[in-house]
Amino acid sequence: MIKNLLLIIDYLKLIHGAFNTLVMLLLIYQGWVGLRIRKIRRAGKPPDFRMIKRHRKNGPFFTILGCLGFIAGIIIIYLDEGRIFEYPLHFIVGLVITFSLIATYLISKRISGAESPLRTPHFILGIGILGLYLIQVFLGLGILF
Question: Any idea what the CATH number is for the domain that residue 57 is in?
Answer without folding.
Answer: 1.20.120
